[in-house]
Specification:
- There is one protein chain.
- The protein is an alpha/beta fold and 297 residues long.
- It folds into 2 domains: 9-24 and 209-294; 35-206, Rossmann fold, CATH 3.40.50.
- The protein has helices spanning 9-12, 19-26, 35-48, 69-79, 106-116, 126-139, 158-175, 185-191, 195-200, 213-225, 237-247, 251-268, 275-280, 286-294; strands spanning 58-63, 95-99, 144-148, 178-183, 201-206.
- The chain has a 5-stranded parallel β-sheet with strand order 2-3-4-1-5, sandwiched between helices.
- Strand 3, helix 7 (158-175) and strand 4 (178-183) form a beta-alpha-beta unit.
- Helix 3 crosses helix 4.
- The longest helix is centred in the middle third of the chain and has 18 residues, at 158-175.
- The radius of gyration is 22 Å and the shape is elongated.
Length: 297
Amino acid sequence: MNSYPHLHKNCIEKLEWDAEARVKDIAQPRWIGYPRAHEVLQRFDDILVHPRVSRMPNLMLIGRTNNGKTELLRKFCQQHLPDPNSSGDSFIAPVMYMQAPPSPNESDLYVQILNSLYERVPASSISAKRSRVIDVLRTIELKVLCIDELHNSLAGSSVKQQNFLNTLKYLGNELKISFIASGTEDLLRATSIDTQIQNRFEPILLKKWTLTKEFRQLLRTFESILPLKRPSKLYSGLLSKKILALSEGTIGELSSLLNKATVYAIRSGSECIDIEVLSNCGYISPSDRIRDSALGI
C-alpha cells in the first residue's frame, strides 16, 4: 500500500534521504508539463516538419518575464538534439537555440550564432561574418532557429530595429528556415514597425495564470514531485489563492515560491506546505522586490 499517495512514485524514494539531500535535490532543474505547454510544443513541432518554401512560417512566444518562455524553447531543443552524423563531415542540427544579442546589431547577431555553435568568427567584415553564418547553417541543415529574449535586441532606435529585422528576414529567405522567437509584449510592439515581419511571425501568448481548474491541476503536479512526507493539498481553496497571489501568475515565480516553501518545511520538520510556511519561508513576491528596490532596501 502506498503510504504517500500525494507523491509521484519516483519521488517517494527521496523521502529516505536525509534533510539536506532532499534540499539539494529541490534545486535541480525540472520540467513541469501542463496542457498549454504541450500545445505550444506541438506548434513548435509543426514548424519543424513544415516543408522548405520561399516564405517560411515563424512564431513569437510572448509572455511576462519568468512565465516559462525559455523553458519551452529549451524543452523543444532537447527533444530535437543534433545528430552526430558520424559518417559525414559535420553534425546535423535541425533545431538550434541561442540568446538574442543585447543590441539590434547585425554583426552581433552573426557572432552570437557562430559562438552558439562553437564556430570560428571571422575577424573581418560583416559580409564575411554573414557568409560564414550562411555556410555553417547550411552545413548543419538547420530548419528552426530559436532566439530567446528577442525583445532585448530590439530596444534601440526604430532604424536599428528595422535593420535587425531585415537581417532575420534575409536569413529566413536565404536559408529557408523558420524562427521561433520569445519575448515580452515589447517584442510585439517592435515587430509592428514592419508589416512584412509582423505578418510572418504568428504570436503565441503565454497568459498569466488565474485561479482555474488548470492552475489547481498544476499545483497537484508540483505537489507530486516535492519530497515532503505529509500532503499539503496545495490545490485547496485558501492555499491555492495564497500561492497565486504571491507568485503573481507566472510559473517561474510559482516554482521559486514552492521550492523555498519546501526547503522551509523540510528544515522546520513540518513536512508540508501551509499558510504559515508560505509566510515564513523567505519568499518575496515580484511586486515587493520592485518596491524594495525602489526604496533602496
